[in-house]
Amino acid sequence: MAKEKGRVTLHDIAQATGFTVNTVSRALKNKDDxxxxxxxxxxxxxxxxxxxxxxxxxSLRSGRTKTIAMISGSLTNPYYAILCDLxxxxxxxxxxxxxxxxxQDDPDTEIKMVEMSLSRQVDGVLIxxxxxxxxxxxxxxxxxxxxxxxxxxxxxDTDDCVICDDWQGGYLAGQHLIEHGHQNxxxxxxxxxxxxxxxRFEGFKQxxxxxxxxxxxxxxxxxxxxxxxxxxxxxxxxxxxxxxxSFCDVEAWSLIxxxxxxxxxxxxxxxxxxxxxxxxxMNFPKPICxxxxxxxxxxxxxxxxxxKRIHDPSLPPQQVIVPxxxxxxxxxxKPEPRA
Length: 339
Hints:
By secondary structure, the protein is an alpha/beta fold. The protein has 12 helices and 12 strands.
């Protein structure tokens, strides 16, 4: 029966079960020196009484809060929403609470989120850095707080990081377009994302080189708004471009919508492939060929890496690259002859 007033304590459970407070505490933690039968009995009584562990008191004793922070871009981007959801699942499995903070890909906001993480005394931070020279990362390094870079990596640094194989993803995207008959290809990125944009284009360009595509038929652009995007694809259309690789699925869907609202047609004028395979995690009305970056594996690896860093700060830094794969949904068709 739940206690009528106030928080249920270990002393209350001890009185209800007839065990000592020490035995109750160890049973709730599934310690090996307490029999399984006793653990289950005490845990059931604790649940019936409405006991909730006081992590603040535990943190005062252990020096750890069992909380980690995830600092990502805007959750209006389904990529970050999916990533945070997967991170939370993995964190809970290891007994950690998760504080989700959004930098909006703004350096000033990002450093405020790091300051907030430090003030809340989290045990560690997962962060998708928003710039090459992030002051937030400088603060994390100087603070000594364990952290892991996730999805984005600052080349040349010695921080722990978990990223997908951006280069291989770009290569697979270019290869997929070439295999479907495209001989004039372009990559679009709406903004330059730390490390990833360059690596994806390098892989894309290598696939074109290996496929016998001449340099003049391999294009790259970073349009900043819808007007510039349309002007760019119309210019590429005049140059004979038929295969488009979009930096990510969200940008690919924006591109497809713009094409549909203009005189251009997906399938007739252009084929499009994205990156992230968001359709593998949530339903969208428009199918699209994409590169699967295995976000669940990224999440699992990042949490494990951060947990190890928390428990042993002396470990050498690790950079983990998660393999990618191609998912074909029929949006990269053989180009139709143009009049």
